[in-house]
């Protein structure tokens, strides 16, 4: 389902362009074991689960939305997420060794601010190249802190996009329409001329619709569980589906 009428496109980042290279839960445990003094009882590598991380992230996002904008850095916000993701015995160990705990938080925060911690989905570079060939202006719009700019540079994606807009710098998160309106302003177009593509039904799809943009929900692993409120014609299974037909043919 290639699209040919859009000259302005915005793309979500996490889950759309990139994802952590390794399990976040496993990385947390590895860093803990390498930085913190040893515990009496050995730590299993599955001491932290993806569910634990998700719970901690959602809890902190509810308590202090948008990575804690009241601070000068998102690091304190992420520090609370990191600590809360660990089980109680590991949290107690961090409280008993505060200097090491600070080193652990600093190391994890720095790690996920580098491109080496992330991988780009296989359809991303061909899509960006094709959009560039078609003279389509492209921006990245993401609920992310200010580290995203460095990550995009490290992954050599910066030259393929016109700008990176994070919720941290905009001071408002998707699905609020204002971040999409700011993207349209930067692209020198009106919202209805803009196509947004992302993988989150609420933040990306509903947010872009509320802002007056066209939108496609990206479901790479489409297993029939697409949100029923999203029309099937608004669902794509690859970023290449948004590429104009002529340019897409060059990528095949």
Number of helices: 12
Largest sheet: 6 strands, parallel
Could you say what the CATH architecture of the largest domain is?
3-Layer(aba) Sandwich
The helicity comes to 40-55%
Corresponding CATH superfamily of the largest domain: HAD superfamily/HAD-like
Assign an overall shape: elongated
Radius of gyration: 20 Å
Instruction: Count the domains.
Output: 2
Q: State mean pLDDT (0 to 100 scale).
A: 93
* SS elements, strand count: 8
Low-confidence regions: none
In percent, how much strand structure appears in the residues? 5-15%
Order of helices and strands: EEHHHHHHEHEHEHHEHEEH
Give the strand order, joined by hyphens, for the main sheet: 5-4-1-6-7-8
What would your notes on this structure say?
This is Haloacid dehalogenase, type II. One of its GO terms (cellular component) is nucleus. Pfam families: Hydrolase. The strands form two sheets. A six-stranded parallel β-sheet has the order 5-4-1-6-7-8, with helices on both faces. A two-stranded antiparallel sheet has the order 2-3. With 252 residues, it is an alpha/beta fold. The model has no long low-confidence stretch (mean pLDDT 93). Helix 4 crosses helix 6. The chain is built from twelve helices and eight strands. The longest helix is centred in the first third of the chain and has 14 residues. The protein folds into two domains: 126 residues, Rossmann fold; 97 residues, Orthogonal Bundle (DNA polymerase, domain 1). Strand 4, helix 8 and strand 5 form a beta-alpha-beta unit.
